[in-house]
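Troubleshooting entry. Yesterday's outputs looked truncated, so today I'm pasting the complete records for two proteins to confirm everything comes through intact. If either block looks cut off, that's the bug. Protein one:
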Amino acid sequence: MRLDWLEDILAVIETGSFVEAAKRRFLSQPAFSRRIRMIEQYVGSELFDRTKKPVQLKSAVYGQQSEIRELVVKLHELRNNLGNQHQDRDNQIIIASQHAITTSVAPTLIKNLATINGLTTLLRSANRDECYALLIKKQVELILIYHSESDELPEQQDFFQKHELARERLIPVCLKSERALIAQQQQRKGWIPVVSYPSDSFLGQVLEREIFFRLRSELSIHRVAETSLTLAILPMTLAGVGVGWLPDTLVAPELKSGALVDLSEEFPCCELRVMAIGLKSTESARSLSAWETVVASAQS
């Protein structure tokens, strides 16, 4: 049933008069009466008791009054949502971010994009390779990824635009109550328990090149658990599973509370750059303005 027909029915219910309802609906009284008859023909029965003043719904229809009102509201919402789809797309930026960055750098950037550019953000969490794939396929406009000094960023200068947003340190941490046991295992058995990243993941490769390669001349690395999710390594480390190498910004609250301890004096750490990367081929005014906010966010 058409939305305007439902609104016609409500107009009669609320005014109790075909004449007043016609005025509310900006129709002549004969035209409005014809439309009510058309609605009744469509439904297959009379809706109103015309013998009563004010006009009332037939008793069989009266119980549907609340459903009619609810349906009118929902149809208005649906129409508005459908009509706003294009505007919503114009006011939305889609960002893919490595998991840990979603809780560190991303929130401030999202706030700036909303405040300065009036943009809403759809944030997708993915691993590093997936972020690049989404960007190249133009399924996202911006990616936030980690970069280490021993890692190569794409060098297609005419294809990518890159900007450093922040620097973080990947530091070794463990549960405070487990520190003595880990030191004992290190001294007596020559190994340390580690919660690590898979060797085929970006952070796993960083650990292999910059941390474990240096440690293996002195220690054996006992991988108690592996996960590609940085945000999953934190609770495992808090559970005392082993030593985890985590971004310093991520573990700052736990270090401050004393739940975790920083083992940087015992084991190596490495620096990571948080990079924002977009496609140069995207040159709409909105995208250019958003990139300016990205650059400004790094400077603030």
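Protein two, checking that the full record survives here as well:
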Amino acid sequence: MKYLLRLSGEHPELPYTELTELLESCGLEYSVRRLEDLWIIVDTECDAGVFARLAYTLRVYEHVGESRDYTTLVGDVYDIISDSKTFRVSSESDSAAKRLGELLYEMGIQVNLKKPDAIVFCKKFGEDYHIGVELRIERDFESRRPQFRPFFSPTSMHPKLARALVNLSGACEGDLLLDPFCGTGGILIEAGLCGVKVAGWDVSEVMAGGCGRNLAHYGISGDIQVRDALEKSDFKCDVIATDPPYGRSSFTTDETKKIFNGFIPNAHGMLPAGGRMVLMAPDDVEIDFREFSVKHKFDVRMHKSLTRRIWILEK
């Protein structure tokens, strides 16, 4: 099946890599055709629900077809939305929206501009019009922002970025993801909502307790422990995703290096061969990744004075 995706423009590379890493971790064969910078067609045999995991994809449509004459695709559109009582056409072209609307209305489906059962999308790329039917994907990251959780810390990560880290880790449903610097549990919440098993450590009893409360708030159970990630451990997991506590102004560069270079050897022993670790780090700190190979890295600007680097490492 083909899907038409509108990627987020928040980063030039991260949305596309998040998508392909998710498809690969699910064991799916796929091909991608780029129509424009933020528009791609994905051909893969997967349930549309897979795309609900994505953080940096804004819209997903079932791709109906492409043609220089969009009216030739109306019958295919009708076959998909015929069970809907109402529809609306969304298009940059007023004439295309009007004509498609007229044709579908003549086939017996009512127009509802405010709350349609189906949304038909039409956009011209080059010489051809592409038509899709929007898939309703509920993610609602804003309602899970840190200030709306039972336990809050001002240094907590936005749920959208936390979800992206989970997807970049390659975690599949049923895998065990460890966040060894879990804080209030932002990464673990997003992992748990994707059906991933979660474990979290924090040296602070207050943070570990707050993380457990936040997980319970979303119906997620996890193994949360008061534990120092810099101490050697025989713990085993499938993937690691974490954002170590380097962001406080009281931290020096040397202290930040100590955290990363102290934990990375421990992490290597926790993961299986081919296991992946995704971590956030300052963009100006040298890190010794030891026996890990670097698969990807992305610089993400958080605000004017802070850029963080996402490292995707593989054992």
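Both blocks look complete. Sanity check on protein two: The radius of gyration is 22 Å.
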